[in-house]
Protein backbone atom coordinates (compact mmCIF):
# COMPACT_ATOMS: atom_id res chain seq x y z
CA UNK A 1 0.00 0.00 0.00
CA UNK A 2 1.39 3.41 -0.91
CA UNK A 3 0.00 6.59 0.52
CA UNK A 4 0.51 9.33 -2.06
CA UNK A 5 0.46 13.02 -1.41
CA UNK A 6 -2.25 14.87 -3.31
CA UNK A 7 -1.66 18.59 -3.46
CA UNK A 8 1.21 20.51 -1.89
CA UNK A 9 2.64 20.04 1.65
CA UNK A 10 4.63 22.78 3.27
CA UNK A 11 7.05 21.16 5.76
CA UNK A 12 9.69 22.32 8.21
CA UNK A 13 12.38 19.72 9.05
CA UNK A 14 14.62 20.39 12.05
CA UNK A 15 17.74 18.28 12.48
CA UNK A 16 20.43 19.88 14.60
CA UNK A 17 21.03 23.39 13.26
CA UNK A 18 19.75 22.57 9.78
CA UNK A 19 16.26 23.76 8.83
CA UNK A 20 14.75 23.70 5.40
CA UNK A 21 11.35 24.05 3.84
CA UNK A 22 10.23 21.70 1.14
CA UNK A 23 7.37 21.87 -1.30
CA UNK A 24 6.30 18.31 -1.95
CA UNK A 25 4.20 17.48 -5.00
CA UNK A 26 1.98 14.53 -5.74
CA UNK A 27 3.79 11.20 -5.99
CA UNK A 28 6.01 11.54 -2.88
CA UNK A 29 5.45 8.67 -0.44
CA UNK A 30 3.97 10.01 2.78
CA UNK A 31 5.81 7.72 5.23
CA UNK A 32 9.18 8.68 3.72
CA UNK A 33 8.17 12.31 3.94
CA UNK A 34 6.92 12.06 7.50
CA UNK A 35 10.09 10.46 8.85
CA UNK A 36 12.66 12.21 6.70
CA UNK A 37 15.77 13.40 8.50
CA UNK A 38 15.25 11.50 11.79
CA UNK A 39 14.66 14.90 13.31
CA UNK A 40 11.68 16.72 14.72
CA UNK A 41 9.02 17.15 12.08
CA UNK A 42 6.32 19.77 12.14
CA UNK A 43 3.54 19.73 9.57
CA UNK A 44 2.40 23.31 9.28
CA UNK A 45 -0.45 22.57 6.88
CA UNK A 46 -1.82 19.67 4.93
CA UNK A 47 -4.27 20.17 2.15
CA UNK A 48 -5.22 16.60 1.36
CA UNK A 49 -3.72 13.14 1.63
CA UNK A 50 -4.79 10.44 -0.82
CA UNK A 51 -4.33 6.74 -0.09
CA UNK A 52 -4.20 5.04 -3.48
CA UNK A 53 -4.96 1.55 -2.17
CA UNK A 54 -8.52 2.25 -1.14
CA UNK A 55 -9.05 5.71 -2.65
CA UNK A 56 -9.80 7.14 0.82
CA UNK A 57 -9.08 10.80 1.48
CA UNK A 58 -7.82 12.15 4.84
CA UNK A 59 -7.69 15.64 6.28
CA UNK A 60 -4.69 15.82 8.67
CA UNK A 61 -4.14 19.22 10.26
CA UNK A 62 -2.07 20.30 13.25
CA UNK A 63 0.34 17.35 13.33
CA UNK A 64 3.28 18.33 15.57
CA UNK A 65 6.01 16.89 17.79
CA UNK A 66 6.45 13.92 15.43
CA UNK A 67 3.15 12.44 16.57
CA UNK A 68 1.20 10.78 13.79
CA UNK A 69 -2.47 11.41 14.33
CA UNK A 70 -3.75 9.31 11.44
CA UNK A 71 -2.86 5.75 10.46
CA UNK A 72 -2.29 6.84 6.86
CA UNK A 73 -3.94 3.82 5.35
CA UNK A 74 -2.34 1.43 7.87
CA UNK A 75 1.24 2.23 6.86
CA UNK A 76 2.11 4.12 10.06
CA UNK A 77 1.19 3.28 13.66
CA UNK A 78 -1.02 5.94 15.25
CA UNK A 79 0.63 8.22 17.82
CA UNK A 80 4.09 6.87 17.00
CA UNK A 81 7.28 8.85 16.73
CA UNK A 82 10.60 8.32 14.95
CA UNK A 83 13.23 6.38 16.89
CA UNK A 84 16.28 8.47 17.62
CA UNK A 85 19.81 7.49 16.64
CA UNK A 86 21.78 8.73 19.64
CA UNK A 87 25.28 10.10 19.81
CA UNK A 88 27.68 9.02 22.55
CA UNK A 89 27.08 12.26 24.41
CA UNK A 90 23.31 11.84 24.18
CA UNK A 91 23.64 8.36 25.72
CA UNK A 92 25.67 9.74 28.61
CA UNK A 93 23.15 12.52 29.09
CA UNK A 94 20.30 9.99 29.09
CA UNK A 95 22.07 7.81 31.68
CA UNK A 96 22.30 10.76 34.05
CA UNK A 97 18.79 12.02 33.30
CA UNK A 98 17.37 8.55 33.95
CA UNK A 99 18.74 8.11 37.47
CA UNK A 100 15.68 7.72 39.72
CA UNK A 101 15.29 8.88 43.30
CA UNK A 102 15.69 5.42 44.80
CA UNK A 103 19.08 5.06 43.10
CA UNK A 104 20.20 8.51 44.21
CA UNK A 105 19.21 7.85 47.81
CA UNK A 106 20.17 4.21 48.22
CA UNK A 107 22.70 2.92 45.64
CA UNK A 108 26.00 3.62 47.35
CA UNK A 109 28.78 1.80 45.45
CA UNK A 110 29.19 -0.61 42.54
CA UNK A 111 32.11 -2.78 41.43
CA UNK A 112 32.34 -4.23 37.92
CA UNK A 113 35.11 -6.50 36.68
CA UNK A 114 34.26 -5.17 33.20
CA UNK A 115 35.04 -1.63 34.36
CA UNK A 116 37.92 -2.79 36.51
CA UNK A 117 36.95 -0.91 39.65
CA UNK A 118 34.39 0.75 41.88
CA UNK A 119 32.05 3.65 41.03
CA UNK A 120 29.80 5.56 43.41
CA UNK A 121 27.76 7.38 40.75
CA UNK A 122 24.45 5.50 40.25
CA UNK A 123 24.34 6.57 36.58
CA UNK A 124 27.41 4.43 35.92
CA UNK A 125 26.15 1.26 37.63
CA UNK A 126 25.41 -0.58 34.38
CA UNK A 127 25.76 -4.06 32.85
CA UNK A 128 26.22 -4.78 29.12
CA UNK A 129 23.22 -6.16 27.24
CA UNK A 130 25.28 -9.03 25.77
CA UNK A 131 26.21 -10.25 29.25
CA UNK A 132 24.69 -13.72 29.57
CA UNK A 133 23.33 -12.73 32.98
CA UNK A 134 21.03 -10.33 31.14
CA UNK A 135 19.71 -12.37 28.23
CA UNK A 136 20.17 -15.96 29.44
CA UNK A 137 19.97 -15.69 33.23
CA UNK A 138 23.29 -17.54 33.44
CA UNK A 139 24.56 -16.10 36.71
CA UNK A 140 24.52 -16.68 40.46
CA UNK A 141 24.42 -14.21 43.34
CA UNK A 142 24.40 -13.82 47.09
CA UNK A 143 23.90 -11.08 49.66
CA UNK A 144 25.54 -10.17 52.97
CA UNK A 145 24.34 -7.73 55.61
CA UNK A 146 26.37 -4.66 56.55
CA UNK A 147 25.80 -3.89 60.21
CA UNK A 148 27.70 -1.38 62.34
CA UNK A 149 30.58 -1.40 59.89
CA UNK A 150 30.91 -5.20 59.70
CA UNK A 151 29.69 -7.79 57.20
CA UNK A 152 27.68 -10.46 58.98
CA UNK A 153 28.31 -14.08 57.95
CA UNK A 154 30.29 -13.03 54.88
CA UNK A 155 32.27 -16.26 54.65
CA UNK A 156 29.17 -18.44 55.03
CA UNK A 157 27.51 -16.48 52.21
CA UNK A 158 30.64 -16.87 50.09
CA UNK A 159 30.57 -20.64 50.68
CA UNK A 160 27.04 -20.78 49.28
CA UNK A 161 28.03 -18.41 46.46
CA UNK A 162 30.81 -20.76 45.37
CA UNK A 163 28.52 -23.78 45.70
CA UNK A 164 25.98 -22.08 43.41
CA UNK A 165 28.75 -21.15 40.97
CA UNK A 166 29.90 -24.76 40.76
CA UNK A 167 26.37 -25.99 40.01
CA UNK A 168 26.02 -23.29 37.35
CA UNK A 169 29.37 -24.23 35.75
CA UNK A 170 30.84 -20.81 36.49
CA UNK A 171 34.44 -20.10 37.50
CA UNK A 172 35.11 -16.70 39.10
CA UNK A 173 37.57 -14.44 37.24
CA UNK A 174 39.64 -13.99 40.42
CA UNK A 175 40.73 -16.15 43.37
CA UNK A 176 38.42 -16.28 46.37
CA UNK A 177 40.58 -14.00 48.49
CA UNK A 178 40.39 -11.32 45.78
CA UNK A 179 36.60 -11.71 45.46
CA UNK A 180 36.33 -11.32 49.23
CA UNK A 181 38.52 -8.22 49.17
CA UNK A 182 36.45 -6.63 46.37
CA UNK A 183 33.27 -7.16 48.40
CA UNK A 184 34.80 -5.60 51.50
CA UNK A 185 36.26 -2.64 49.64
CA UNK A 186 33.00 -2.01 47.80
CA UNK A 187 31.36 -1.84 51.22
CA UNK A 188 34.11 0.54 52.37
CA UNK A 189 33.54 2.82 49.38
CA UNK A 190 30.05 3.58 50.70
CA UNK A 191 31.43 5.22 53.86
CA UNK A 192 28.28 3.82 55.49
CA UNK A 193 27.91 1.40 58.39
CA UNK A 194 24.51 -0.10 57.53
CA UNK A 195 23.12 -1.71 54.38
CA UNK A 196 23.42 -4.77 52.18
CA UNK A 197 26.10 -6.03 49.81
CA UNK A 198 24.92 -8.08 46.83
CA UNK A 199 27.31 -9.69 44.38
CA UNK A 200 26.94 -11.63 41.13
CA UNK A 201 29.03 -14.02 39.07
CA UNK A 202 27.96 -14.08 35.42
CA UNK A 203 28.98 -16.20 32.44
CA UNK A 204 30.00 -12.82 31.00
CA UNK A 205 29.86 -10.82 27.79
CA UNK A 206 30.49 -12.02 24.26
CA UNK A 207 27.32 -12.62 22.28
CA UNK A 208 23.63 -13.46 22.23
CA UNK A 209 23.94 -17.23 21.86
CA UNK A 210 22.91 -19.81 24.45
CA UNK A 211 26.27 -21.41 25.21
CA UNK A 212 28.66 -19.67 27.60
CA UNK A 213 31.54 -20.88 25.44
CA UNK A 214 31.13 -17.72 23.39
CA UNK A 215 31.75 -15.51 26.43
CA UNK A 216 35.04 -13.67 26.78
CA UNK A 217 35.35 -14.44 30.48
CA UNK A 218 33.14 -14.58 33.54
CA UNK A 219 32.11 -11.24 35.04
CA UNK A 220 31.88 -10.25 38.70
CA UNK A 221 29.68 -7.44 39.96
CA UNK A 222 29.06 -6.13 43.46
CA UNK A 223 26.71 -3.41 44.69
CA UNK A 224 26.25 -1.86 48.11
CA UNK A 225 22.88 -0.33 48.89
CA UNK A 226 20.83 0.96 51.78
CA UNK A 227 18.06 -1.28 53.02
CA UNK A 228 14.44 -0.26 52.84
CA UNK A 229 12.74 0.48 56.14
CA UNK A 230 12.11 -2.93 57.71
CA UNK A 231 8.55 -4.07 58.41
CA UNK A 232 7.45 -4.00 62.04
CA UNK A 233 7.83 -7.54 63.45
CA UNK A 234 5.20 -6.75 66.09
CA UNK A 235 2.63 -6.51 63.30
CA UNK A 236 3.69 -9.68 61.50
CA UNK A 237 2.95 -10.89 58.00
CA UNK A 238 -0.03 -12.38 56.21
CA UNK A 239 1.06 -15.11 53.79
CA UNK A 240 -0.66 -16.89 50.94
CA UNK A 241 -0.15 -20.35 49.49
CA UNK A 242 1.06 -19.67 45.96
CA UNK A 243 -0.34 -21.26 42.78
CA UNK A 244 3.08 -20.80 41.15
CA UNK A 245 4.76 -24.21 40.66
CA UNK A 246 7.78 -24.93 42.84
CA UNK A 247 11.18 -25.05 41.14
CA UNK A 248 12.94 -28.28 40.28
CA UNK A 249 15.15 -29.27 43.26
CA UNK A 250 18.38 -28.73 41.30
CA UNK A 251 17.48 -25.12 40.57
CA UNK A 252 15.67 -24.49 43.87
CA UNK A 253 18.93 -25.21 45.72
CA UNK A 254 20.96 -23.03 43.34
CA UNK A 255 20.88 -19.27 43.99
CA UNK A 256 20.77 -18.11 40.38
CA UNK A 257 19.48 -14.85 38.95
CA UNK A 258 16.45 -16.63 37.49
CA UNK A 259 13.93 -15.42 40.07
CA UNK A 260 10.90 -15.24 37.78
CA UNK A 261 8.97 -17.82 39.79
CA UNK A 262 9.90 -16.04 43.03
CA UNK A 263 8.76 -12.69 41.65
CA UNK A 264 5.43 -14.18 40.58
CA UNK A 265 4.93 -15.70 44.03
CA UNK A 266 5.44 -12.30 45.66
CA UNK A 267 3.27 -10.51 43.11
CA UNK A 268 0.41 -13.00 43.42
CA UNK A 269 0.40 -12.57 47.20
CA UNK A 270 0.57 -8.78 47.17
CA UNK A 271 -2.20 -8.44 44.58
CA UNK A 272 -4.41 -10.47 46.91
CA UNK A 273 -3.64 -8.28 49.93
CA UNK A 274 -1.03 -10.54 51.54
CA UNK A 275 2.57 -9.71 52.43
CA UNK A 276 4.32 -12.82 51.09
CA UNK A 277 3.62 -16.01 49.18
CA UNK A 278 4.70 -19.56 49.98
CA UNK A 279 5.86 -22.28 47.59
CA UNK A 280 4.11 -25.63 48.16
CA UNK A 281 4.96 -28.70 46.10
CA UNK A 282 2.55 -30.93 44.19
CA UNK A 283 2.13 -33.23 47.19
CA UNK A 284 1.24 -30.41 49.54
CA UNK A 285 4.61 -30.07 51.31
CA UNK A 286 5.65 -26.56 52.33
CA UNK A 287 8.90 -25.35 50.76
CA UNK A 288 9.84 -21.66 51.20
CA UNK A 289 8.89 -18.06 50.58
CA UNK A 290 10.00 -16.01 47.56
CA UNK A 291 13.20 -14.74 49.25
CA UNK A 292 13.09 -16.30 52.70
CA UNK A 293 12.79 -19.63 54.49
CA UNK A 294 9.75 -20.60 56.53
CA UNK A 295 9.16 -22.58 59.71
CA UNK A 296 6.52 -23.50 62.28
CA UNK A 297 6.23 -24.08 66.01
CA UNK A 298 3.97 -27.02 66.84
CA UNK A 299 1.72 -27.16 69.90
CA UNK A 300 4.10 -29.79 71.26
CA UNK A 301 7.00 -27.31 71.33
CA UNK A 302 8.78 -28.54 68.18
CA UNK A 303 10.43 -25.94 65.94
CA UNK A 304 10.26 -27.35 62.41
CA UNK A 305 11.76 -26.11 59.13
CA UNK A 306 11.71 -27.89 55.75
CA UNK A 307 14.82 -29.81 54.64
CA UNK A 308 17.06 -28.25 52.01
CA UNK A 309 16.44 -30.91 49.35
CA UNK A 310 14.08 -28.64 47.43
CA UNK A 311 14.69 -25.25 49.04
CA UNK A 312 17.61 -22.87 49.21
CA UNK A 313 19.89 -23.51 52.17
CA UNK A 314 19.29 -20.24 54.00
CA UNK A 315 22.46 -18.97 55.66
CA UNK A 316 20.48 -16.98 58.23
CA UNK A 317 18.18 -19.92 58.94
CA UNK A 318 21.12 -22.25 59.49
CA UNK A 319 22.56 -19.80 62.00
CA UNK A 320 19.21 -19.55 63.78
CA UNK A 321 18.97 -23.36 64.02
CA UNK A 322 22.48 -23.46 65.48
CA UNK A 323 21.72 -20.76 68.06
CA UNK A 324 18.43 -22.37 69.07
CA UNK A 325 20.07 -25.75 69.60
CA UNK A 326 22.75 -24.07 71.71
CA UNK A 327 20.07 -22.58 73.95
CA UNK A 328 18.34 -25.95 74.31
CA UNK A 329 21.63 -27.70 75.08
CA UNK A 330 22.28 -25.14 77.85
CA UNK A 331 18.82 -25.75 79.23
CA UNK A 332 18.13 -22.03 79.22
CA UNK A 333 14.34 -22.08 79.27
CA UNK A 334 14.11 -18.34 79.90
CA UNK A 335 15.39 -17.54 76.40
CA UNK A 336 12.95 -19.48 74.24
CA UNK A 337 10.52 -20.91 76.76
CA UNK A 338 8.07 -22.99 74.74
CA UNK A 339 10.52 -24.61 72.27
CA UNK A 340 11.68 -28.06 73.37
CA UNK A 341 13.01 -29.53 70.12
CA UNK A 342 14.45 -28.38 66.77
CA UNK A 343 13.72 -30.48 63.67
CA UNK A 344 14.38 -30.22 59.96
CA UNK A 345 11.79 -32.42 58.30
CA UNK A 346 9.06 -32.20 55.66
CA UNK A 347 5.67 -30.91 56.77
CA UNK A 348 2.47 -30.41 54.82
CA UNK A 349 0.31 -27.35 54.48
CA UNK A 350 -2.32 -28.82 56.81
CA UNK A 351 0.23 -29.24 59.62
CA UNK A 352 1.49 -25.70 59.09
CA UNK A 353 -1.98 -24.24 59.47
CA UNK A 354 -2.60 -26.26 62.63
CA UNK A 355 0.66 -25.08 64.22
CA UNK A 356 0.89 -22.80 67.23
CA UNK A 357 2.99 -20.30 65.26
CA UNK A 358 4.61 -19.84 61.86
CA UNK A 359 7.51 -17.57 60.93
CA UNK A 360 9.76 -16.52 58.06
CA UNK A 361 13.57 -16.14 58.16
CA UNK A 362 16.00 -14.27 55.90
CA UNK A 363 19.04 -12.00 55.93
CA UNK A 364 16.94 -8.84 55.58
CA UNK A 365 13.78 -10.30 57.14
CA UNK A 366 15.64 -11.64 60.20
CA UNK A 367 12.61 -13.42 61.77
CA UNK A 368 9.08 -12.30 60.96
CA UNK A 369 6.00 -13.79 62.69
CA UNK A 370 3.21 -15.03 60.42
CA UNK A 371 -0.16 -13.85 61.73
CA UNK A 372 -2.29 -15.32 58.93
CA UNK A 373 -1.83 -18.11 56.36
CA UNK A 374 -4.54 -18.03 53.71
CA UNK A 375 -7.69 -17.96 55.86
CA UNK A 376 -6.00 -19.37 58.97
CA UNK A 377 -5.20 -16.76 61.64
CA UNK A 378 -2.38 -17.31 64.14
CA UNK A 379 -3.14 -14.16 66.13
CA UNK A 380 -3.77 -15.11 69.74
CA UNK A 381 -6.49 -12.95 71.31
CA UNK A 382 -6.87 -14.40 74.80
CA UNK A 383 -6.30 -12.96 77.31
CA UNK A 384 -4.65 -10.16 75.23
CA UNK A 385 -3.72 -9.93 71.54
CA UNK A 386 -0.29 -11.42 70.91
CA UNK A 387 1.68 -11.67 67.65
CA UNK A 388 4.12 -14.56 67.36
CA UNK A 389 5.67 -14.36 70.83
CA UNK A 390 7.92 -17.37 70.17
CA UNK A 391 8.95 -16.04 66.75
CA UNK A 392 9.82 -12.70 68.32
CA UNK A 393 12.00 -14.54 70.84
CA UNK A 394 13.81 -16.22 67.94
CA UNK A 395 14.25 -12.81 66.33
CA UNK A 396 15.77 -11.39 69.51
CA UNK A 397 18.17 -14.34 69.67
CA UNK A 398 19.31 -13.73 66.08
CA UNK A 399 19.53 -9.93 66.45
CA UNK A 400 21.84 -10.38 69.42
CA UNK A 401 24.08 -12.60 67.29
CA UNK A 402 24.07 -10.02 64.48
CA UNK A 403 25.51 -7.37 66.79
CA UNK A 404 29.29 -7.31 66.17
CA UNK A 405 29.92 -6.39 69.81
CA UNK A 406 28.80 -9.93 70.67
CA UNK A 407 32.11 -11.05 69.10
CA UNK A 408 30.93 -14.53 68.10
CA UNK A 409 33.14 -14.93 65.06
CA UNK A 410 30.38 -14.10 62.57
CA UNK A 411 31.60 -10.65 61.50
CA UNK A 412 34.26 -9.30 59.17
CA UNK A 413 35.30 -5.70 59.68
CA UNK A 414 34.98 -3.43 56.64
CA UNK A 415 38.36 -1.81 55.80
CA UNK A 416 37.21 1.79 55.51
CA UNK A 417 40.85 2.94 55.72
CA UNK A 418 41.57 1.70 52.17
CA UNK A 419 39.93 4.90 50.92
CA UNK A 420 42.52 7.07 52.66
CA UNK A 421 45.44 4.66 52.84
CA UNK A 422 45.20 4.60 56.62
Automatic annotation (TrEMBL):
SUPFAM superfamilies: D-aminoacid aminotransferase-like PLP-dependent enzymes. Its cofactor is pyridoxal 5'-phosphate. Keywords: Pyridoxal phosphate. InterPro entries: Aminotrans_IV, Aminotransferase-like, BCAT-like_C, BCAT-like_N, Class-IV_PLP-Dep_Aminotrnsfr. One of its GO terms (biological process) is carboxylic acid biosynthetic process. GO terms for molecular function: transaminase activity. Belongs to the class-IV pyridoxal-phosphate-dependent aminotransferase family. This is D-aminoacid aminotransferase-like PLP-dependent enzyme. It comes from Coccomyxa subellipsoidea (strain C-169).
Amino acid sequence: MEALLSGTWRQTFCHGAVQRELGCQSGVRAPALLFSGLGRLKVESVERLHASANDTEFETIGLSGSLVQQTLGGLVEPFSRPTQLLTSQEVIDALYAGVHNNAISNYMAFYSSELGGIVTDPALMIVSVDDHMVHRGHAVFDTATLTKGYLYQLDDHLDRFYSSASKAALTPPFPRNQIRRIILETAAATKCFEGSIRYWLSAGRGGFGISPLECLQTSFYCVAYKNAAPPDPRIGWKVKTSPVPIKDPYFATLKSTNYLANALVALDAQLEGFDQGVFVDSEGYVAEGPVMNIGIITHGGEMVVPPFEQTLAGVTLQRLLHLTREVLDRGDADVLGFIKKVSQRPFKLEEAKQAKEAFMVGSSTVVMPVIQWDDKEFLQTKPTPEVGIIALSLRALLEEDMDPTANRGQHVEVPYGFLTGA
